[in-house]
Design a protein that fits this description.
Rossmann fold, 2 domains, four-stranded antiparallel sheet, alpha/beta, single chain, 9 strands, five-stranded mixed sheet, about 25% strand
Length: about 210
């Protein structure tokens, strides 16, 4: 088994309200890092972190699960937590061992109570917090509204590092606001492959505004 120095280890906890997509994001991260060779689905009970029969039957997480991956010579332990209020003890336990809290916000719903609670608990533990606006391909997804919700409910200090290109059925990529580069996905391709391009004209002004 490969050995990692302490400086190469990261514990990243995934937290949010129920149904925001934590388990699916963990699955995508594992697949991208080649820790798994196929992407499982929550509704099929085939994800790496929802391994308990009760989770597979309910299609929700009911306990913490750890999924390791390697990225840029670092070992990242993903900590997938339940999102429903009944399992708040699992959330607090996950935050206690996380270096960073990655909080998911549903792009069509904005910040929900479970995400707000997890943000508060992570702040009390004084760990780094990052927000991931998820489900940009779903009906009624709206990045700007979700971002406004994040700023108004969580913290005015939040600043976007990326923004989407399109939304709902037209969602097709992201803009890296630090490098000012666009990454566009091929329609219908679920492999995660993308093409680096210039920033499309329809989002150029918005990208500049967010960058500033």
């Amino acid at each position: 088994m490969k050995q990692y120095a302490t400086a190469q280890r990261r514990n990243v906890g995934l937290f949010s309200h129920g149904g925001a997509g934590k388990t699916s994001l963990a699955e995508a991260m594992l697949f991208t890092a080649k820790a798994v060779n196929r992407m499982g689905r929550v509704d099929e009970g085939s994800t790496a972190t929802d391994y308990d029969p009760d989770e597979q039957r309910r299609h929700i997480s009911v306990q913490l699960a750890v999924a390791p991956l390697e990225w840029q010579e670092c070992k990242i332990n993903l900590i997938d937590s339940p999102g429903y209020a009944e399992f708040i003890g699992e959330v607090k336990a996950g935050i206690r061992v996380s270096d960073t809290a990655l909080l998911l916000v549903d792009a069509s719903a904005g910040v929900e109570v479970g995400t707000e609670q997890a943000w508060k608990y992570a702040g009390e533990r004084n760990i780094a917090r990052m927000v991931f606006i998820n489900k940009m391909d779903r009906e009624n997804a709206d990045f700007d509204k979700a971002l406004d919700s994040t700023l108004n409910v969580l913290s005015k200090k939040c600043a976007p590092l990326q923004m989407p290109i399109g939304s709902q059925q037209s969602f097709r990529g992201i803009v890296d606001l630090l490098q000012m580069k666009a990454y566009v996905y091929k329609p219908g391709d679920t492999s995660g492959k993308y093409e680096e391009t210039g920033i499309p004209d329809e989002v150029a002004a918005s990208a500049q505004r967010h960058r500033e």
